[in-house]
Structure formats: C-alpha cells, structure tokens
Specification:
Elements: E1 2-7, H1 22-29, E2 41-45, E3 51-54, H2 60-65, E4 81-85, H3 91-94, E5 107-110, H4 112-120, E6 136-139, E7 145-149, E8 160-166, H5 177-180, E9 190-196, E10 199-204, H6 213-219, E11 223-227, E12 271-275, H7 289-296, E13 299-301, E14 307-309
Parallel strand pairs: 3-4, 4-5, 5-6, 10-11, 11-12, 12-13
Antiparallel strand pairs: 1-2, 1-14, 2-3, 7-8, 8-9, 9-10
Bound molecules: zinc ion.
C-alpha cells in the first residue's frame, strides 16, 4: 500500500487565516522553523492506478493538483481518484466532497449516520448526484471487513479492504437535534483499518480516546496515522479563555496523563505518524522541545507531501 499525506494540519490549516498565536505568527514571518500545512487529507493506493481518498478536506482541490498521481489520463474525463472513505461528517472531513462535483462517477464509503447527515440535512451535497451515474454511497458497517477493491480470483489476498471501528466520538455541532436523535452514536466518528496482502494501515485523524479498543487497531497495524491535534488538554484555553478542552472537542491530547504519547500500547512494530495538527500545537515548530519529545518517543510528525509505503 502507498499512502500519500496531502495535508497534515487540523481545521483552519497552518497558519490559520484569522490566528495570530505565536506559531501562526512565527510561520508567517519565518521566525520559527516550521512548514505551512494544508488541512488533513490522505490518499491510499495498492496499484498506483486507483486512488482512495481518506476523507475530503476543504483544501482538496489544491491537494489533488499537487500530485502527478492524480492527473487524468490524456483524453479522458476521469481521474485516478475512484472513491472517498469518510471517517465522520465533520466539516474538515467532508467539505472537500464539493470539490469532486465535476460529473465524475465516484463511490463514497461512510457509515449510515454520516451519509444521512450529508444527504438529508445538507442539500448542497446533492450536487454530487448530478453525475451520470450519480455518486454511489456505500455503507460501512462497523467491525466488518469491506472490499474497496475486490481480490482477483487468482490471488485471494490481493485487493484492498477496509474495516470501520467506532471511536466513540460525537456528531458535529451543526447536526439538528431531530436528526441526531435518529442516528446511531457509535457511527459518528470511526477509525479505518485498511488491509491489503496482510499489511494493515490504521487511520484515525480524530481520536477521542474513549475506551481502549482502538489501541489494539494501532498495535495490529504496520502503519498508523493518529490524532495529533493538541499537545495539551487546555491548549486552546491558554490562548482564548473559555475555549473547550481537547477532550471535550473529541481529541485525545498528546501530553499529560493518559495522553497519546503516554498511552500504554503493547510493544509492536507499528510506524506511528501524527496528523491533523492544530496551529496551536508546539510540535509544528521543528525546534521546539515538544517536537523533540515526539521524535524521541519514536513517533513521526506528518507534513504535506509525506509519502509512506507498507
Ligand atoms: Zn494560530
């Protein structure tokens, strides 16, 4: 499997347009050693010809244009991007679907709850139904292996499979009370285990850290992309009084008691990469003590253009 990190920041990107925190100011002026980042987006492929987008970020158009892998073959009107897999209905995860509205038949894999939020309550997404054939929504049932690319008859281990795991998150604030009451809460935020030829990639850019079943998914994977949104639980509050904590926003912080860096994972060979990094997180500064702590603990900090293979 090849994975491309097309964007690595949390919502708002880095720097964020309306933010003058020390990091945003520092990256604008060049006073700190840090890379600008677009909003978190990944793409995965097993054959280099068909690409699956993991979520659809608000920066998706620019991110697609950034790689030769996504250029449509000469004379065609079809991109190598064949499907999108959604982990939630958050704006950061789904808004980019609107960039894919140019009449290309696509598949979108999501839980029933996420599909209902986007199709029943957000009429703007109906533009996706204008292609011929229209965009096809496929249901991701929890804890079940689903083929994204079916295996060839000659090699049953080929193909690409996906398993959705509930991360016990919450629905976005914008979802109405009436719709929310008719949805399964465990379908709000999922992690994805992508499987091909006995290799596993786990993708969880939003990790509330509720329960510990997700840790098994990390330990069993060869490569895991995990929530690096906040360094500390009270990070936003220290910049703007009255802000919610990281955990209240559905993000397990990196530092502190039972933070992600101190999570008691069982020993494994998993390569662990932090994505969805908020513009307030000091790990964005390559020379910060926090960035060093992360690297010394054998974690990697994703950046736009990072490519990995397992
Ligand atoms: Zn900022």
């Amino acid at each position: 499997m090849r994975v491309k990190v097309l964007g690595s920041a949390a919502g708002g990107g880095f720097p964020q347009w309306n933010c003058a925190c020390p990091l945003c100011t520092g990256v604008r002026s060049g006073a700190i050693k840090a890379r600008p980042r677009t909003q978190t987006q990944a793409a995965i492929s097993v054959d280099g010809a068909r690409w699956f987008l993991l979520n659809a970020s608000p920066d998706l158009r620019q991110q697609i244009l950034s790689s030769a892998d996504f250029v449509p073959p000469i004379g065609s009107r079809n991109s190598p991007i064949t499907a999108v897999v959604l982990t939630s209905a958050d704006t950061d995860a789904a808004m980019g679907l609107l960039h894919l509205r140019e009449f290309q038949p696509l598949q979108i894999f999501s839980t029933i709850a996420v599909r209902r939020i986007l199709t029943e309550e957000n009429s703007l997404f109906r533009v996706l139904a204008r292609s011929n054939p229209p965009v096809k929504w496929e249901t991701l049932a929890l804890d079940r292996l689903m083929p994204l690319i079916p295996p060839s008859p000659a090699d049953k281990k080929s193909g690409l499979f996906c398993k959705a795991v509930s991360l016990n998150g919450t629905f976005p604030d914008y979802v109405s009370e009436s719709l929310r009451n008719s949805l399964s809460p465990e379908e709000a935020v999922i992690g994805l285990t992508l499987v091909s030829k006995e290799k596993k990639v786990f993708y969880a850019p939003n990790l509330p850290g509720v329960g510990d079943h997700w840790a098994r998914c990390v330990e069993e994977s060869d490569l895991a992309f995990l929530d690096g949104t906040f360094w500390k639980d009270d990070e936003l509050n220290s910049i703007q009084k009255g802000s919610k904590s990281a955990r209240q926003m559905g993000h397990l912080p990196l530092w502190g008691d039972r933070g992600l860096l101190r999570w008691p994972f069982r020993p494994s060979k998993t390569r662990r990469v932090l994505v969805h990094i908020n513009n307030t997180n000091p790990i964005l500064n390559d020379e910060s003590p926090e960035s060093r702590i992360v690297r010394d603990a054998n974690w990697e900090i994703a950046y736009d253009g990072m490519e990995l293979a397992v």
